[in-house]
Design a protein that fits this description.
about 350 residues, Rossmann fold
Length: about 350
């Protein structure tokens, strides 16, 4: 049980990221000093959205150069911090080498940050952004879990570098963190395991895969239908509060599933259609599984991923996060509409002319 002194600086890795941005905003709004770890502190354009928040918030921000793969890169920014939020990890579908592009940055990055924690005597707590992907590799996995749903007790044992590489990267990185915290007594580890993160970004050009999904829902790429993918979803703003509460709730512990609702792609399309009518070519039906399986390689998916996910129920139990971190979730409909509206306002999707 750790009590964090709010007069001390707090470190956030990957501070320009989609999730980290809202966390930084929350910390600044609470009057804290944020040590923001970024690739290039001199790239003012990339930092503009954080500068804008800091300008009107009671807290203050200080930027430090950081590289997930460079040893000692986090030492300077961690000085004087009692609390470290490690959110940095790649989430992209554009990969040519899964080991190099996903697994190495996630695993070595976690090792690197925690090595700095070991060298920094002020640190009392690390909050790590993991994923529900470290619990469930494929939706079919849920069928082997008690009550058909994932809990904090389960681990993803089905993903590999060749199959669901992103899920594998999150799993090995989180397991490494638990291994490293076990060897000492000074600092503790609280892990956040979110499902698919949705909602408006502080910057409309955020690079998360969630933005690609919503662009495709509205730009016609999915107008003929969507695969019957079952997913969990959480609003990025609720997720930021979960991180904050994990840092400053003394009794916070272990893994914490942060997911508002279990849903699917077709439901997203239906919500958007209710609000925007026929102005955009939203999907209105699920595609037959055999058809998705057949065309999978043509659109960059492996058939094994299709067979183990399409038509299978993906479910998690979110009760621990509600109970122990005090999380309440905004309605998913609000999240979906506000997210898509940002796409419209920023010109990323256009109505049928």
């Amino acid at each position: 049980m750790q009590t964090i002194d709010k007069s001390k600086p707090v470190m956030v890795t990957g501070a320009t990221g989609y999730v980290a941005g809202w966390l930084v905003k929350k910390l600044l709004d609470e009057g804290l000093t944020v040590h923001a770890m970024v690739r290039d502190p001199n790239n003012r354009q990339k930092l503009a959205h954080l500068d804008a928040i800091a300008a009107s918030a009671p807290g203050s921000i200080k930027y430090f150069a950081a590289d997930l793969l460079r040893e000692g890169a986090y030492d300077e920014g961690m000085q004087g911090c009692e609390l470290v939020f490690h959110t940095a990890s790649p989430f992209t579908s554009k990969i040519s080498d899964a080991q190099r592009d996903l697994v190495d940055p996630a695993l070595k990055g976690t090792r690197n940050v925690l090595a700095s924690v070991q060298r920094t005597p002020t640190v009392k707590r690390v909050v790590l952004t993991s994923s529900c992907a470290a619990i469930i590799g494929d939706a079919i996995d849920c069928e082997a879990y008690p009550n058909g749903m994932g809990t904090e007790a389960q681990w993803n044992t089905t993903s590999t570098v060749e199959h669901q590489a992103y899920s594998y990267s999150k799993t090995v990185a989180e397991q490494e963190a638990w291994k490293l915290v076990a060897g000492q007594q000074r600092w503790d580890l609280v892990v956040i395991n979110p499902s698919l993160v949705l909602g408006p970004g502080l910057s409309a050009d955020a690079s998360s895969e969630s933005f690609n999904l919503f662009r495709q829902l509205g730009n016609g790429k999915m107008k003929s239908g969507v695969p019957d993918f079952s997913i969990g979803m959480v609003d990025v703003r609720d997720l930021a509060i979960a991180h904050y509460n994990a840092g400053f709730t003394p009794a916070a512990n272990g893994r914490n599933i942060i997911s508002a609702e279990n849903s699917d792609f077709l439901t997203l399309g239906k919500i958007l259609r209710q609000h925007y009518g026929a102005a955009y070519p939203f999907p209105q039906k699920n595609l037959p599984k055999f058809m998705v399986w057949l065309v999978a390689p043509l659109v960059g998916f492996k058939r094994k991923m299709i067979s183990r996910n399409v038509g299978h129920k993906w479910q998690v139990d979110n009760s621990k996060g509600k109970r122990e971190l005090g999380i309440s979730y905004r309605p998913m409909e609000q999240t979906v509409v506000e997210f898509f509206q940002q796409m419209i306002d920023s010109g990323q999707v256009k109505a049928r002319g």
